Amino acid sequence: MQHARPTALLAIAFGLTAALFDTEPLWVPAATLALLAAGSAAWVVLGARDVRIRRTLGARRVVEDEPVTILIDVSAGRIGLPPATVIDPLLPAPVALRTGAAGGRVRIEARFGRRGRRALSLPRVVVADPLGLATRAVGARASAGDDEILVLPRIEPVVAAGSGGEATRLARRGPLAAGAETELDGIRPLRDGTPASRIFWPAVARGADAQERFLATGSKSSPLVVVDPRGGASDEALDAAVRAAASLARALAQAGGCSVLLPGDRRAVELGETLAGWGHLHARLALLTASTGPSLSSIAQRRGPLVFVSARMRARMPQALGPAHGALRVLVVPGEIPSRQAAFSVAGCNGYLLTGAPGRARRAAGAARETAA
Q: Strands 306-310 and 329-333: what pairing?
């Protein structure tokens, strides 16, 4: 009751003065002020008693900078709404409701520019009397999951360097998969239709059962995206690295499949062309912090192409991820590496092709140029 109490105190002061000094004219303002204070307080208490407020979220998850609709519904009793306004942190200014109506609705189109979990303060309805002497706030009741939105990192196009266009799909023979040449993986019994170039001739020469060499396939040769959120120069650098990782993972998955290794995981998450499991991975990327890094020991000798996305600006791969058997390594950082030419850019980051075999490096760079063209 913001102003009703001072009004009541003023009425009491007029009444005491009238009684002490026997000044009858002062009884009129004393009574008037007392009636105003009491009437205003009663108006607000009765009007706010039946007011109910409910908030409905259009989505529990939303991508950065995409709009999400939030509805605030206000209902009143049989006497209708008293003068009232809706207050919410997402509103630029309080919104007045129509007096006497059975209820009202406020629609908010909110956007969130950064990923992460966003806790929403509960909206309020401030009820007041026509003179503004008394006010009372009615808050919404908190319900499970209704006060939180998960903001997901946005997906941005992968742009090949010098192409001037968008590489909306990274083909299997594109810049990130150019070095995914198969490697000798082991020996197994010979199968019908095996080319002579893959027959294990030493076994045949010894008179043993015919055998063939088989090559690394599947998860070993598909691209692996490794995310290291540590050491970023700023929160913006970390967010850029996470957006780049999400964009690359989705593009590679749609191009034939890939896997993603996040901090805290010992095994990579597999993503196929159907994007099964993408929703869970996207949510984990939204909550990624710079507190821990990925486990590199299990992937140090990986033969397939490896994409290392770092929030920290670095010029080379971590020592544990040096090229294995000449396999392609791609370093993605939020900035430009001096004296190196980026193969592509994505979400404010640049990707650089690295490999331990010069010949393969030339082939990878050539494939990158062909894909860009």
A: parallel
Q: What is the pLDDT of residues 245-297, one digit of tens each?
A: 999 999 988 888 889 999 988 888 999 888 889 999 999 999 999 988 888 87
Distance of CA 163 to the CA centre of its chain: 29
CB 228 within 8 A of CB 308: yes
Residue 119, exposed/middle/buried by CB under 10 A (0-12, 13-18, 19+)? Answer: exposed
Task: Say whether pTM exceeds 0.90.
Answer: no
Pick the more confident residue, 330 or 1.
330
Structural domain 50-152, CATH architecture:
Sandwich (2.60)
CB 308 within 8 A of CB 276: no
Spell out the domain ranges in the chain. Answer: 4-48, 50-152, 159-181+217-372, 184-215
Q: What is the residue type of 23? A: T
What's the rounded Cα separation, in Å, for the pair 133 and 7?
A: 8
Task: Assess contact for 306 and 320: CB atoms under 8 A.
Answer: no
Q: Rounded to a whole number, what is the distance in angstroms from the first to the last CA of the chain?
A: 71
Confidence of residue 107 (pLDDT cuts 50, 70, 90): very high
The two structure tokens encoding residue 231:
């050491």
Instruction: Select the more confidently predicted residue: 43 or 6.
Output: 43
* Torsions phi, psi for 321 (to 5 deg): -110, 30
pLDDT at 2 over 80: no
